[in-house]
């Protein structure tokens, strides 16, 4: 049985005597920030609104807990990234995010590196920050500044997501662990009526909860809930290692030509994100052709790919050579598909669909953690006020691709 999560349901008591109102949502960073901002909306009343997260595995079980956590004011899409960058700063200030989820401002650079033992170890002529003293000078072939502490920051995605979930729970949000079976509609598919889920992965008993609004925030598993929404999962591998000494807050997008003996001379593209806890996160570029498993707990980890990352890191830095590997992991980030392939410069899908009460908040590609706060705020505005108020998201309107006749 597929483990489907990422669905919110809302039953409004505004026009009835019913006061046990309900939301259901998935436990990734998008679902949890939706929960948080719904509970902070001025029209939210925990006496008449009951908000529940439905999660198949655990909070931040997928890529939300395994991402790099880079934040940039000029990330994609431009219509929401500046707002979300600002909201991240506000959340960190209000809730002590510097300690709770590792929020800090960072430098970001794009670089070409050549590992030790390479064919050409002449140092680059371009200027690069002196704080990059943890890279072998001879490895740096080129360096381009792409971010500063004024416009770039980072968080630890797992700690951020779980903290936001906890802050939502403080305002009345409940968490249910279950496998979503599907959305329930009225006879002519014009309105949502509820969500059906299995209480356990092996259960055949379906539980149906009523709803007037459903936000689908299922990430790469969105198509299992609404088949007409073409969202897939690009898979990347990553490691968390412990450098031999503390290193600077310089995040890198690097093309590395490994130089260690026994490794091919082809380049490997990696992201390198030092964290304030003294670790370094690194991942390879995502493979959009990877097969998506039924749920996040079934994602397999190719230890060979993780070793390749560690070997490449060791080739450019004494501090990273032979570093203790704390985590080896893999995850699928949600990507919009076009004709079965990853669509460039597309997504997320954010807003209402052709069925009254069904909203989408999915397909954030590489910028899910970055754009989660804006997504949650805008989704809360759509639910409570009927339209987004804080940003113009017409370009993200799901109704451009989702027809109500195809929703089930």
UniProtKB/TrEMBL annotation:
<dbReference type="InterPro" id="IPR006076">
    <property type="entry name" value="FAD-dep_OxRdtase"/>
</dbReference>
<dbReference type="InterPro" id="IPR036188">
    <property type="entry name" value="FAD/NAD-bd_sf"/>
</dbReference>
<dbReference type="Pfam" id="PF01266">
    <property type="entry name" value="DAO"/>
</dbReference>
<protein>
    <recommendedName>
        <fullName>FAD dependent oxidoreductase domain-containing protein</fullName>
    </recommendedName>
</protein>
<dbReference type="GO" id="GO:0005829">
    <property type="term" value="C:cytosol"/>
</dbReference>
<dbReference type="GO" id="GO:0042147">
    <property type="term" value="P:retrograde transport, endosome to Golgi"/>
</dbReference>
<dbReference type="GO" id="GO:0005770">
    <property type="term" value="C:late endosome"/>
</dbReference>
<feature type="domain" description="FAD dependent oxidoreductase">
    <location>
        <begin position="26"/>
        <end position="381"/>
    </location>
</feature>
């Amino acid at each position: 049985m597929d483990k489907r999560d990422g669905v919110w349901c809302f039953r409004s008591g505004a026009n009835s005597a019913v006061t046990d109102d309900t939301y259901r949502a998935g436990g990734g960073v998008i679902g949890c920030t939706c929960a948080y901002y719904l509970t902070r909306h001025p029209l939210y009343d925990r006496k008449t609104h009951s908000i529940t997260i439905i999660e198949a595995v655990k909070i931040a079980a997928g890529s939300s807990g395994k991402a790099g956590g880079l934040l940039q004011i000029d990330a994609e899409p431009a219509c929401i990234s500046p707002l979300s960058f600002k909201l991240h700063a506000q959340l960190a200030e209000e809730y002590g995010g510097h300690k709770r989820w590792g929020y800090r401002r960072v430098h970001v650079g794009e670089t070409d590196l050549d590992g030790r033992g390479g064919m050409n170890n002449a140092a680059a002529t371009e200027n690069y920050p002196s704080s990059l003293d943890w890279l072998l000078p001879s490895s740096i072939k080129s360096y381009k500044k792409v971010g500063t502490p004024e416009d770039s920051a980072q968080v630890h995605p797992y700690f951020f997501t779980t903290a936001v979930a906890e802050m939502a729970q403080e305002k009345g949000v409940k968490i249910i662990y279950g496998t979503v079976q599907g959305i329930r509609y009225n006879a002519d598919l014009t309105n949502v009526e509820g969500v059906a889920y299995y209480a356990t992965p092996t259960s055949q008993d379906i539980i149906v909860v009523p709803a007037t609004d459903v936000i689908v925030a299922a990430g790469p598993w969105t198509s299992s809930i609404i088949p007409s929404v073409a969202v897939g999962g690009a898979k990347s591998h990553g490691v968390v290692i412990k450098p031999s000494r503390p290193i600077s807050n310089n995040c890198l997008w690097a093309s590395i030509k490994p130089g260690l003996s026994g490794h091919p001379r082809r380049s490997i593209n990696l992201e390198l994100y030092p964290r304030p806890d003294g670790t370094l996160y690194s991942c390879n570029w995502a493979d959009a052709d990877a097969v998506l498993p039924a749920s996040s707990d079934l994602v397999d980890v190719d230890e060979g790919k993780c070793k390749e990352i560690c070997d490449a890191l060791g080739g450019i830095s004494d501090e990273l050579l032979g570093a203790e590997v704390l985590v080896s992991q893999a995850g699928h980030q949600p990507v919009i598909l076009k004709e079965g392939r990853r669509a460039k410069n597309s997504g997320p899908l954010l807003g209402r669909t052709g069925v009254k009460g069904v909203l989408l908040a999915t397909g954030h590609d590489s910028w899910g953690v970055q754009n989660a706060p804006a997504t949650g705020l805008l989704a809360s505005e759509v639910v409570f006020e009927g339209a987004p108020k804080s940003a113009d998201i017409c370009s993200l309107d799901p109704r451009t691709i989702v027809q109500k006749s195809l929703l089930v």
